[in-house]
């Protein structure tokens, strides 16, 4: 009955339902309920049964006054009590089933939404994460979904029950006394006008609350990640002021909504109370003037019991309206994320890589920029033969990391093409392309798990011996074996329990365990000591045989044996050749080399 959701299931509808409901994001969520018709049907039927059984008590009260007490027929009392007990029992049983079925339905829809959002996050390009703070993204997935969850759990359930109750009760009121029933509708225009005015004014305020909460979450994420820097610079006081500024903005935006809600809810309660006054006055007058047998004391008692059952759902709907505005603002932020375009994706004609590539990489007139009119790479042409080592050097900002990021298609070039064994990278599926590429980043990232779990990211089917071989090749086995629990030791968030050099070596081991035909080492040995670097370089030299390798390094001593060295300057290749050839050219590479050789 249940299935795994994908982002398309929450796509905008062309049917115009969004316009009809005037709550586009919520309409998209509510439409997802229709994928589970049985749960919807059972929920509605149980809600209908609960409502009908709730109408029994006032009718029994009317019967007790007019048919039991007035004529003194106490012999009718036992079965009357039995009917009431059975009605209450069935009502509460159906209510329990309604809560169960309703929660099953709503939690499944929420699971679908969470899965769709997370799946879409995995597909979004690196560019999206460069433009959106991580804390704000997390806030959308947790805090905003919680607000949507609240209206789905409480709002839809209470809304359905309230509407059914109002319809059922009003029908009973009409049967008891049509004039009094119509009189009970007098406050409704005021209540509707108030609800419309509140809805128009509250939406922007709720959206601002969600945005302020997102800013606060982004700041907290940033400050927790940078706690060492905060303490190093004794900036606790400064950060406390920054936190207060954002927290105060959240407080003020929330208070603006609460002030509006206070006026709105109190006004609506007053207007609803006027209905009681009108009905009580008119009913008493009817009885005092001799209502006769057509409208008895029992009828009036039943009517007065029904009136709260009519107005309470109306008042409850105002609370649901408040939740709806909160959820609408939250849902808008969720769908802003879900509707974010995927810049790098599979072509419709993309095919999987079924055999291990040789590893020939070609750049043909590649141009790339992160923003308009600010070129990062211009006219890049290069060929890396299978099993060769290509080193890329240049000053900071020259485009070295950007160039290698195009190979696994973290970005796509604006002009030109990149080819693997003569085929455009865009003609391969992303998953199988990236399976052919191993990367050791400049800042190694380790997940909050054990060493073994992090290494298995390289190849999930690797056995213990293969893991040990990779650790030894990366010169990481010595420190791993000395840990109390070995490779089952937790590394902490982002590998905080390990040194920079240890994290670097584990990242290398993870890439080597993957055994890809193409290897990218982005400053792969920049964070280890000289002795460890020498060991790693020897291990990498042996293990890189048979792989097309790209190396980015500031320390030119590590790339002397590269088959070709590319010198980047302002996004262009200004020099290329072997180490000896470039030294003899007396160009930019020689200048960089001499600058590193000179004593400080």
Low-confidence blocks of residues? 12-23
Distance between the termini: 70 Å
Spatial strand sequence of the major β-sheet? 6-7-8-3-9-10
Described by the principal axes of the CA atoms, the overall outline is: elongated
Largest sheet: 6 strands, mixed
The CATH topology of the domain at 21-338 comes to ABC transporter transmembrane region fold
Distinct helical segment count: 21
How much helix is in the residues?
55-70%
Strand content is: 5-15%
Structure description:
This protein is 60% helix and 10% strand. The protein has helices spanning 17-21, 24-31, 37-54, 56-69, 77-123, 126-131, 134-176, 178-183, 188-225, 227-232, 236-288, 297-338, 400-405, 430-434, 451-455, 464-473, 477-481, 500-514, 530-543, 579-585, 588-597, and strands spanning 361-371, 374-384, 389-394, 415-420, 423-424, 437-440, 518-522, 548-552, 564-569, 572-577. The chain starts with 16 loop residues before the first helix and ends with a helix. The relative contact order is 0.08. With 600 residues, it is of the alpha/beta class. Strand 7 (518-522), helix 19 (530-543) and strand 8 form a beta-alpha-beta unit. A 6-stranded mixed β-sheet has the order 6-7-8-3-9-10. It has a 4-stranded antiparallel β-sheet with strand order 2-1-4-5, with no helix packed on it. It has a domain at 21-338: ABC transporter transmembrane region fold (Up-down Bundle).
